Amino acid sequence: MLKARRLARIIEILREDGFASLGEIAERLGTSVSTVRRDIDHLAGIGPVTRTHGGVVLNPGEALSFEPGSEIASAIESDAKAVIGRHAAGYIEAGQTVMFDSGTTTREVARAALARKLAFTAFTNDVAIASLLSVSDRIAVNVFHGRMRPGSTTLLGAETVADIGRMRADLLFIGTHAGTVEGLSDTSTELAAIKRAFLASAETKILVADRTKFPKRSLCLFARLPEFERIIIDAGIHAGLASELRSQNPSLELAEDNAE
User: Fold this and answer.
1) What's the rounded Cα separation, in Å, for the pair 25 and 38?
2) pTM of this prediction?
3) Residue 74's pLDDT is what?
4) Is 65 left (phi over 0), alpha (psi -120 to 50) or beta?
5) Which residues contact 160 (CB under 8 A, 6 or more apart)?
6) Segment 4-48, tens digit of pLDDT
7) Could you give the CA distance from residue 208 to residue 191 in angstroms, rounded to a whole number?
8) pLDDT tens for each residue of 194-207
9) Residues with Cβ < 8 Å from 111, sequence gap 6 or more?
10) Can you tell me the distance from the alpha carbon of 162 to that of 205, in angstroms, rounded to the nearest whole number?
11) Residue 122 near residue 110 (C-beta atoms within 8 A)
């Protein structure tokens, strides 16, 4: 198992259980305790976990501002994100103008849209999404101006917000760092400003987020659940939590893997 995938799985395990021993993690990952120990030391160094006697715990504030980096983020709940992507991409129609917020789940929507071989116009602040879509001669790909966020494929800043604000798109796919029934939040005012600009510039707004984003709060609120025409989450979310979210927006849909 590649290191990024191991680190992602450790974060997933701790999000589920809160605490795990090194031996338990090693068994679930099919690797050695010494490898797990090095991986835990790495995660402890960048912020989301704390070593304890015999194990590791997820830090209580992990959802507020910690971001694992694009390589690890892509591996967290990668199967669920792919399922969400295929479900969400089904709402794209030929000839539409479609905006893609930066993120690993929106990237899976773009990947699924590419597979559908539709002709449409795409706008994004994510250079990885732009690169992915650019292989098709049927998709007109546009990238917003801005500065690169260190360690990511995201463009942001005042130029990006201004560019997005000039748009009037048919459809938007947007992600979130965290969400509760009270609303959606991200880790900085800059990212929240980008997302608010996206929401103001699209006729149809679709939130795509895997179940690990709920129920969590981050630093900056950017939207309420009723603002979206559709909310798409993977079917692994707890039924009670899905019901709570649906009470705020009945358009919540659970994406399931229908692959043969």
Assistant:
1) 12
2) 0.78
3) 59
4) alpha
5) 125, 144, 145, 146, 194, 197
6) 778 878 877 887 777 888 888 888 888 888 898 888 888 888 777
7) 16
8) 999 999 999 999 99
9) 82, 85, 132
10) 19
11) yes
SS (H, E, C) the chain: CCHHHHHHHHHHHHHHHCEEEHHHHHHHHCCCHHHHHHHHHHHHHHCCEEEECCEEEECCCHHHHCCCCHHHHHHCCHHHHHHHHHHHHCCCCCCCEEEECCCHHHHHHHHHHHHHCCCEEEEECEHHHHHHHCCCCCEEEEECCCEECCCCCEEECHHHHHHHHCCCEEEEEECCCEEECCEEEECCHHHHHHHHHHHHCEEEEEEECCHHHCCCCCCEEEECHHHCCEEEEECCCCHHHHHHHHHHCCCEEEECCCCC
Residue owning tokens 């939130």? 207
* Structure-block tokens of residue 169: 């798109």
Cα–Cα distances in Å, from 191 out to 154, 205, 222? 10, 17, 9
Query: Distance of CA 44 to CAs 11, 49, 189, 233, Å?
Result: 11, 5, 25, 29
